Amino acid sequence: MELHHVLIPFSHCTTIVIAENHAPIQNIFPESGPTILATNRKYRDPFSNQIESKFPLVRRLILFPHCWAFFSILPEIDWTFPKVLDHNVTKFGYRERFLLDRYFRYEPYFISKNWPNQYFIWVSRIWRKIQNYLRPVVIWNKDMFGMYEIIIVPAAYDEHGENLILIGNNKTFELHFQNFYYLSNDLSSETGGYTNAWEPISCNAPNPHKCFQEIERIKKLIAERNKYFWKSVTFEIKYTEENIIDKIHTIKLSQHTGQVKLYKIANLATLDEFTTFLIFENFVNYNQSKVTNRHVFTSRESLEAAFASVLRPPDVSYIMDDVETFSFVSCYKVRPEVSFASALSAPFDGYIWIFLSSSFAAVVLLLKYLTERDMLDGILFTGGVCFEISLLADYTLKATRLLSTSGKFKLYYILALWTILCGVVLPNWYKTSFTMELIVPVKLSSPWKTIMNVKGVQVIIPFARFLDKARMEFNIKRHKRIAAFYEELKERLRELIRYEGDLKLFLEYKNVAYSLWLTTMNLRSQTAQENRTWDEISIHPIEYNDTTVLIKSLNSCGKIAMMDLKENVRLILPFLNDNKNGIVYEKGDDTFFSGIRGWRVVPVRGNYAEKTLKVLLSSGIYSYWEKWFKRVKPEKLFHHYANWTHPVNDAVSLLDYNSKIVTAFLVCGICLGVCGTAFVMEMKNAVLSKFLCRKFIYRVFK
């Protein structure tokens, strides 16, 4: 059968035929479907953009989804393909993996392995040798293939030795589909899957679309078996002596089916471990001792950590959970934002004061216009009414002497309206609001909006923010934990340093990140850590049980702050403010270390872990358990290790009312002083008038 028949089932795919110049490809091109022929090729730079970024993916109404088909004609003569005949197969396939990985990565026409629907069809005369060569790689290095589907097509030269033909009869030819989840016969009955390492598929040349449908059917059935090939790194690292899986298994067996008390299981693990259990709950009983090279399901981690293991764009995807927001707490330059003027103006906001000033000026102008008296009289009357001074009768008597009847009516209307609103309602409203403001604690302010912009600042960050719980609880020396902390820190700083945009905020972050990078270099060894002084390093790790160190550092109220997750800072702040020294700490938000947290997902056909995780997220099950863990098993913060549960100092004595009380007494004293001065002057005038009157009468009647 002619060679072009093998291309027809993939005619709807982006088809690329790879062949050497001397390969027999005379009869390779089918009658339908465009085909790209690649002959003269060079190694591709692995750091450059791959070919998929240059192809538009336009959605069309076709029977099959878009796919990629890479045909290699006689790969055994391809200079980029591993030399199958020149090597003996190793047990664990390390050498084979290296050669195949180089082949997939450096071939200029291949695309990333995390793209679905990719078919590698190798038309070969030594197809059995290639199958034997791939066997250890498939068993021990499944993740290397990603979403690639390997198909081998047996071929041979015709009787003349000129053209390459497919092995088969006139109407059918055979394909061999790679079963990546092949298990031995004793395990196949448990998993209900295929037992062949290569599944044969007979293709009928007159009906090529049916051949592709059969390929898709077998591909899906094989992909469903990936659920048996998973493991969790979290369990393996933490529970080396005490296996949590066995404990969970015991709890499940001790309860009736369908009535498993998940709360008992949740008490055994952390949220990440319990999430892993929910995903693989149905396979707790399954014996995986004979399953080799399982896919790895990692716990939740930051986006930077998920993509930090490689220098080139990694072949993994990412499921986002939430955005980590950071806050900080410090007492650096924390002062009450109150003054004499602000205390007097506090009952009303700025808009009310502007409105009152405008009304005051308008009334003064109207009184001058109606009475034609001096403006000073109008100002004294309007202000006196506001201060509840009895000037209405005297002013009205003087102002209405020369007015007509209509003029008097207008004047009385204005005076009545102003007296009721600004002489009765407004003063009482103001006095009530002013009295209420006295019992409200003083607002504190700080000169900084974000702590990372303060020059020379020292920031304390808990280990748990940059190190996962497995490494936190694993028994490693402190200097190694510090080194791991700074390595994770530098991964976050590296992303900020690489910023090439023109946004002002991120440019500032870039400069700050670069200065922090310089201070955190060469801190891997214990000697290097001990030789650096406190001031030489801007970021300092701390354990949650180092409460004494934290309080001693922050109590200086210098350029130092503690930074943690926003929710943790909210819980820690009352503990820090409960001190006998009266030191007040303020919190603020900082987006410098904000990041995304989620799950790294390796490219796997029909990824069971990814599908189940998305169900947990979209259904609200994960959200429910996340809230349950925060309520029942909260993270142990600084106040937990200090045995602090509630304020021990008198809350009323710690509140600062002094500035407002002083202002109130000052206002009262000024008013009493003015009233006393007026009283003395009035008495003096009265006594003087009485004396002069008596003296005048005495002289008249003498």
TrEMBL record:
Transmembrane listed as a keyword: yes
Residue intervals passing through the bilayer: 350-370, 411-430, 661-681
Entry keyword annotation includes Transmembrane helix: yes
Keywords: Membrane, Transmembrane, Transmembrane helix
Protein name per the record: Uncharacterized protein
Native source species: Folsomia candida
Lineage: Eukaryota, Metazoa, Ecdysozoa, Arthropoda, Hexapoda
